[in-house]
Amino acid sequence: MLSICILGVLTALYAVLFLFFSIGLLRAKKDKEKSEKFWTVSVIVPLRNEEEHAKRTLEALNAQDYTGEWEVICVNDRSTDNTPQILEEFAAAHPRFSVVHVPMDAPYLESPKKRALETGFKQAKYEILMTMDADCLPPKGWVRSMANRFRGNIAIVQGPKKNSGSPGVVHAFQKLETLGYTSIEAAGFSMGIPMVASAAALAYKKDLFFKVGGFGDLVHLSSGDDDMLVHKMIHEPDVGFCYNLDKEAVVETAPVDTFKGLLNQRARWSSNGTSYSNHLYTFFLTLIYTFYVWLFVSPWLALFLDFPWSWFLVPFAVKFAVDVLFLSIGAIRLGETKLLAALPMTELLQVPIITVAVPLGIFKIFRWK
């Protein structure tokens, strides 16, 4: 009886959480107003061994239509391929671009990306810091759309992203899962509780970043250059934040090509799950992970230990139902309804991937590029 009660609580918790997110998505508003001013903007792009993506990313940034003052700072993070040459050649031909190099003998860090970002931030001349990953393609209105949201006390703006790629299983899974993560971001921001964030399309005021001590106490963590930083910044007095649902703010990011790469990426993302300063949030994440573990092991218990199949089927059916509702709302709001065709496959793959990725992340069994 106790086991059934615990399982019921975990199932109800998951359902309530995603119903909450669904309400948040429905409340998220698309902005129609014009900015009060032309903010000055510094875009910082950290790159490590990105010769495959660097040129097209730089060209996409160069095509931005923002008419205010802005710059792009490319931070070469100890690349050993042709990335430094590509950056230097592009910057020489485009005055808006500059290159900063992290020394090859820089000391080891758990999260080198934070050091690369902060190296760029210290060189930034302007009021707004915008971050983007090196494998991303922003639409031409990205800088303009993101800068436009800084009004009143808004000091943090999160933008959406989507995956590029083929219709194959690995890419299709990532496209729908990215829609899910993006929808959770939008829901959390719109409900006033930013739970997750993404540095692939994030902007904040430079003075706020340095006021909270930059990455400071986060530098020893494997990730956290986005959500953990946002969690720090929103605790400052009178700091407003918003989500930018404008289609011109949607950054396209390259997916990984194999399940091994996908598992490595998810392990890296989950590596700080026990390190959040809010212990209640960590406990909440633990409960959700416990629900996933149960969905992973319960079919095997039913097959080999004569557990009732209902102990798996009922929680999984509840999960599937609320996921369909939530992702359908997200797909409609973000104009990605075609991705829903991959939902049954994604539901089956997501449980084992998350169940395995989390312990790999906690025990640091993953690699940076």
TrEMBL record:
Listed Pfam families: Glycos_transf_2
Transmembrane domains' residue ranges: 6-26, 280-303, 309-332, 339-363
Residue stretches making up the Glycosyltransferase 2-like domain: 42-165
Keywords annotated in UniProt: Glycosyltransferase, Membrane, Transferase, Transmembrane, Transmembrane helix
Keyword hit for Transmembrane helix: yes
The keyword Secreted is assigned to this record: no
Gene Ontology molecular functions: glycosyltransferase activity
Record Gene3D superfamilies: Spore Coat Polysaccharide Biosynthesis Protein SpsA, Chain A (3.90.550.10)
Family: Belongs to the glycosyltransferase 2 family.
Name listed for the protein in its UniProt record: Glycosyltransferase 2-like domain-containing protein
Organism lineage string: Bacteria, Pseudomonadati, Fibrobacterota, Fibrobacteria, Fibrobacterales
